[in-house]
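// run 5 | inverse folding | seed 20
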């Protein structure tokens, strides 16, 4: 089976959800509008029977005059002036945000220059979303309340969205069979203009529905028909947001609705009472997002086989393993009977059931917030925003926008290392009190094997969420002090005065490079060299060298390939304290040249998700150095063992839970398995050289009993995403 829950960029899941819901909304709106009045009345009657949501709902009217959407070289526009990019986020989603750039980017309609990255627009600061008191997104004629009726323009909506009534699934298939056509597309097409965005949220920030009013390509005359009949469009959006909310939760209607546009508020007065919703007495004027308002990370889930969202179909887990989500018996049977056998759910079901039994163990953590952050309904954005963690490295954990005045890395929201001040913990702080105290003057007297022991020595309160960032250096510490001595005692690693460590496929970890400063606190008498290696690292940092020292009162930065950053921990240290050197090699590991390392570490590796591992793993076997890797789930560990066997003939050690895993549970789209960053650790077991006395590679794990028949259809629709064989895995 194939899962990517622990690896895909948060923004990609969010984007796929937006397009998926919008595609369904456009198709349903056309069907209802083209049908008889009786069908629309039937829908209204259904909505009137829905339970009431006590939260206030908000219809945001967000005019857009300056930003357009430019389709890239690989983007094939849909029919007419529509959002043809919608079908690009189909069954083969990219795993990294930068992979979207060939398809779509934002441009300025004023000067033609490219705007900010798409991620900063879609996840815009909610404080900027407050409409003006008399904001009117359009001056074109709109229907009066008496004339307003349910939308019924299927031809126009197809053009506006670039999607046909059934979601253009046949177009997606056609795209796959005609790659040569995509290569020849022009990239200089005129940008599309989203003249107005209608957005339905609740007062807590959960997105419930979205509608894009398109003007077509830049330079087209007049205003598109999407601006006309705004009241009808808004009313249809509200009805669909109640019947199939985009965010989490069952269908429901709001206790009260407020609208961010004066004229639209007047026009909706005669419409929303039809579905039993009370409209606020006045349009939204002084209301602004509450302090905890965020775009919630609670998102609709999908069927593992057909990828339909929960707002389209009812999803239920497999009745045996309770791990995988399906929309019905047909998808469950299709997944059960997949060939070859080891990619079928029949093969994986008992194994996934065993993985699910570890959920309680993985959620056993000492923090005061453990119950919240290990829940399946955990909302990361709300948790971080409520604690003022909206800047620095905290923005790497979610779609939150960094706080103002923070210098950023050129390719992300990460502040640049060259712009740091003398505080090594600057990027780990929030808006409130200091989270990290000064480093203790004396080294630890014993080895730490749990978060609780480390927190107690470090002077951290168990209410502090710093473990989410410190999982990386503490995992390195745990490997050095516990796992290497256990598995490779002949190395005598605890008596070494210096260690050269390669951190492989380290794009994300390098974006959090200052968290590794904590290794100087934990291992003050060891000179450490961390070399970050991977083709996802920024090319501009290739071959750069940073030196982090504990005994200097301020930062000194020297430009060039040898970049020295001396940062102070705030206290003058005694004794022979060592430093930490950071090197960067922006290239695949198998082409790296240089001295042999003492240790190799990879975080959340996902061997099956990137082809370069098929070359890097044989390279590691030729070096035969201790190599430890973490994974987000036991499923990932099992897949890594298979890839290691294929690539080298070796294997991996049995995975064990990492006591320094991140406490934040990762929400999966098509399964209910417990995913945590750095949840499990294993090391590579190399194939013994001929005639050597090296330990043999582990044989295949004992096969779990494979059920002969699919789960009984007592509970329908359980599912997990079809696992593709490792060779077919997504890149």
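// decoded
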């Amino acid at each position: 089976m194939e899962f990517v829950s622990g690896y895909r960029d948060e923004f990609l899941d969010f984007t796929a959800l937006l397009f998926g819901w919008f595609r369904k909304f456009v198709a349903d709106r056309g069907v209802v509008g083209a049908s008889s009045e009786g069908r629309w009345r039937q829908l209204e009657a259904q909505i009137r029977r829905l339970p009431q949501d006590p939260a206030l709902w908000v219809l945001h009217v967000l005019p857009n005059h300056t930003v357009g959407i430019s389709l890239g070289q690989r983007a094939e526009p849909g029919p007419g002036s529509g959002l043809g990019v919608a079908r690009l986020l189909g069954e083969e989603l990219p795993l990294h945000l930068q992979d979207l750039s060939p398809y779509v980017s934002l441009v300025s309609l004023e000067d033609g220059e490219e705007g900010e990255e798409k991620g900063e627009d879609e996840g815009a600061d909610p404080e900027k979303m407050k409409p003006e008191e008399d904001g009117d997104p359009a001056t074109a004629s709109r229907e009066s309340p008496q004339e307003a009726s349910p939308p019924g323009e299927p031809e126009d909506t197809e053009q506006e969205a670039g999607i046909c009534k059934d979601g253009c699934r046949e177009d997606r298939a056609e795209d796959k069979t005609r790659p040569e056509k995509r290569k020849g597309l022009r990239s200089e097409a005129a940008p599309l203009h989203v003249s107005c965005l209608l957005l339905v949220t609740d007062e807590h920030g959960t997105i419930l529905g979205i509608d894009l009013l398109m003007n077509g390509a830049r330079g087209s005359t007049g205003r598109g028909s999407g601006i006309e009949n705004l009241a009808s469009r808004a009313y249809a959006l509200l009805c669909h947001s109640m019947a199939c909310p985009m965010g989490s939760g069952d269908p429901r209607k709001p206790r009260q609705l407020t609208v961010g546009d004066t004229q639209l508020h007047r026009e909706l007065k005669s419409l929303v009472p039809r579905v039993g919703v009370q409209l606020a007495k006045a349009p939204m004027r002084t209301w602004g997002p509450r302090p905890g308002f965020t775009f919630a990370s609670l998102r609709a889930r999908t069927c593992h086989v057909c990828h339909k969202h929960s707002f389209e179909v009812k999803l239920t887990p497999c009745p045996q393993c309770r791990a995988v989500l399906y929309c019905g018996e047909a998808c469950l049977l299709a997944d059960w009977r997949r060939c070859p056998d080891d990619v079928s759910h029949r093969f994986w079901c008992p194994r996934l059931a065993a993985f699910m039994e570890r959920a309680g163990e993985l959620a056993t953590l000492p923090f005061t917030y453990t119950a919240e952050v290990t829940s399946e309904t955990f909302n990361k954005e709300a948790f971080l925003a409520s604690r003022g963690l909206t800047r620095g490295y905290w923005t790497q954990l979610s779609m939150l926008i960094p706080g103002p005045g923070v210098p950023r890395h050129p390719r992300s929201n990460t502040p640049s290392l060259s712009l740091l001040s003398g505080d090594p913990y600057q990027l780990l702080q929030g808006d409130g009190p200091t989270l990290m105290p000064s480093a203790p003057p004396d080294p630890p007297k014993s080895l730490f094997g749990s978060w609780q022991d480390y927190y107690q020595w470090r002077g951290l309160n168990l209410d502090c969420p710093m473990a989410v960032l410190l999982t990386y250096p503490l995992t390195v510490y745990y490997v050095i002090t516990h796992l290497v001595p256990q598995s490779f005692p002949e190395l005598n690693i605890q008596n070494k005065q210096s260690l050269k460590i390669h951190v492989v496929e380290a794009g994300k970890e390098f974006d959090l490079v200052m968290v590794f400063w904590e290794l100087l606190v934990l291992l003050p008498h060891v000179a450490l060299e961390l070399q970050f290696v991977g083709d996802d690292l920024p090319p501009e940092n290739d071959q750069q060298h940073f030196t982090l020292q504990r005994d200097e009162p301020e930062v000194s930065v020297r430009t060039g390939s040898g970049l020295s950053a001396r940062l102070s921990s705030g206290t003058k240290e005694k004794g022979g304290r060592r430093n930490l050197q950071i090197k960067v090699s922006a290239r695949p590991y198998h082409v790296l040249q240089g001295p042999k390392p003492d240790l190799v570490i990879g975080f959340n590796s996902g061997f099956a998700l990137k082809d370069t591992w098929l070359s890097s793993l044989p390279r590691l076997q030729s070096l035969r150095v201790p190599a430890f890797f973490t994974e987000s789930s036991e499923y990932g560990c099992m897949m890594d063992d298979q890839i290691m066997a294929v690539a080298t003939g070796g294997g991996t050690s049995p995975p064990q839970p990492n006591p320094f895993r991140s406490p934040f549970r990762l929400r999966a789209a098509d399964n209910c398995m417990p995913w945590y960053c750095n949840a499990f650790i294993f090391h590579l077991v190399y194939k013994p050289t001929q005639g050597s006395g090296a330990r043999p590679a582990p044989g295949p794990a004992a096969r779990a009993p494979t059920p002969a028949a699919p789960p009984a259809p007592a509970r329908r629709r359980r599912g997990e995403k079809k696992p593709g064989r490792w060779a077919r895995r997504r890149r």
